[in-house]
């Protein structure tokens, strides 16, 4: 029994604290303490009743989970389809099996006996094969009538397409002209207006000009009425989390959609006036209607390039409903140099704050009301620093998000950084709860940072990690297409989508691998070798755990990536060059290996990004087909493996 | 605190697992014949374990379609790891850990967070399939569940994760491995979670 436990018992007049009772029933107390609790329970009525209460809480949670939550989990939408085939692909890339065995096993267990047929005469094989093919085709026709695209996908694609377009300009300024029309009441009263917006993305400047439609009949809509309508619309945008700075955009629409508790959605195909295809998303809120709330919204995007063209909003008003229609009449991404400087002259960044649509972050339950593990020290211990790092890692905040743990001049710890949404900030706060009153938490949302108008924040960090694949041809389109159609699982219509999906998945996997490697390097380099000597045992083990977890993840993900790429590209020989395998026995080698890992992951990621996303210059896209690429990828796994072994070795080596 | 390998769980699962584990060490490089049986083993494990992992992901993170894909991805990584002669002593814990991390990765892009309990209690009741207990039983439980629902709302993501993983039969240390925290931290999360549930009970 630890000293802490002894004190706890003593403070309670010789009774174990409730936590110990839970630990006891959970079998988490060590033998001597457990025996003591057991003996005490036999003797003590009060504690037996307390124990029952603990059990009751557990029982309540379990019945809630089993009777309430689990029945709500929908069956997997694809009914686990495709796993066997993906597994074949994986193993296919390592070994080889014939088309026949692949085919039979693709059909899964119910048809497993057919395997025996593989050895029967050729003719029977042929007939059975034909029948099975027909059955499979029929199955596909029956099961595969899902819409081409989901609402989330549609919005994502549209947002990605726009990002890509914006990235194509240096110092981009987005210009959009929109025509707005409102219908309300039974009188079919209509107001119209025109809205022009300029967004200077690099300098966070924004300018909006409203006016009447040109060529409008006088008297139909006075300028005062237009102003009133735009004011009303802006309030609706603010109340519904839409972005007034980007009045007609997928990103803004997605924000509103995300804020809904309940919704119905449908997507339809339609044709535009010029005959080209479009997709129509209609989202209907199922929340109880409140005044000022959007009841239903639609977004129309051009199918060719996912560009949003029209948006309608049906809004609840006092005494009725109003319908707003926003139609894009012009859109351009231009470079700042070509914009008349007078446009942004009068209002540097000010309108941002004035029109920020986000509501203030919701109040969160006080975390400080509960006792925390760590008391607030003046100088933060290394153990606290490591625990903080571990909690951040667990929340996934060490992979590319701009969140860091820093030492303050007084020696305390500060968590500083920038996250995208208020929700994410709350989440980090929750994740860090155990250490929160020992460290300073200075994480801001992008919105907050912009509001402070910090000059240091020259470029908004919004698009840093978005990897957009576009609807156009990819450098390795041909290989992907051949590979996927070789599987025979997709119809030619599905194939386009699958190619994009595979490309996106590969690019994301590679990027996340690179972030892992970087996160590990940061951890390894955080403490100087001398500091390592000074760690206490628990802190050292914790840090090593973190490093090992990253290394293991790099290795696993690297391997998965390599095998799926091998299946696609079938490189002539898998290079297994195990060159310069230095053993890692201490921290300096560990640091060296971590740096090597970052370089390797950067090399392979560059090649993969060039091949799997649309690039402006075609040449580097071929890097993926060079032996150098494959050996970098192989080497990556080896180094990650060395780090894992090295960490194990360091863990066992006695601390001086 | 030296890190120990997780112990295999008892019963059927560990039998299957050790079979796989045995096969694994020798799987490479004479792969193709061995791999066929390894594949079959993986498919069997997949059928056994996909449901709890999927349920966990949907309850905690939401998005059934993403969850389904993540479970598949986790098993493919599992297959990979075994194929490269790594020894995995606690496959279930390993799979949960990998699935959990994959889910976290996606969440950072904010495309993957819509936990099951996001709606109001009435909405949830409304969504319950008819196979749930009969109306009378439901009414009796209604009061209790309303309170539990309110209490669960106060839990942090990590606290919920710990409860659900514990309900899946993981020990504190295993939960720690899955979430990437120490078992002391798991204990602290569970302590808070239990306290919040209790407070609601006594109201």
What does this structure look like?
The complex is a heterodimer of chains A (656) and B (203). By secondary structure, chain A is α+β, with helices and mostly antiparallel strands. Chain A folds into 5 domains: 70 residues, no CATH class; 61 residues, no CATH class; 201 residues, outer membrane lipoprotein receptor (LolB), chain A, CATH 2.50.20; 99 residues, 2-Layer Sandwich (Histidine-containing Protein, Chain: A); 190 residues, no CATH class. Helices cover 49% and strands 16% of the residues of chain A. In chain A, the strands form 2 sheets. Chain A has an 8-stranded antiparallel beta sheet with strand order 3-2-1-8-7-6-5-4. Chain A has a 3-stranded mixed beta sheet with strand order 9-10-11. In chain A, a hairpin with a 5-residue loop joins strand 9 and strand 10. The longest helix of chain A is centred in the last third of the chain and has 35 residues. Chain B is mostly helical. Chain B has 2 domains: 97 residues, Rna Polymerase Sigma Factor, Chain: A; 84 residues, Winged helix-like DNA-binding domain superfamily/Winged helix DNA-binding domain (Arc Repressor Mutant, subunit A, Orthogonal Bundle). Helices cover 72% and strands 0% of the residues of chain B. In chain B, helix 1 crosses helix 2, helix 4 packs parallel to helix 8 and helix 8 packs across helix 9. The longest helix of chain B is centred in the N-terminal third of the chain and has 30 residues. The N terminus of chain B is likely disordered. Classes of the chains: A alpha+beta (656), B mainly alpha (203). At the A-B interface, helix 2, helix 4, helix 5, helix 14 and helix 15 of A face helix 2, helix 3, helix 4, helix 5 and helix 6 of B.
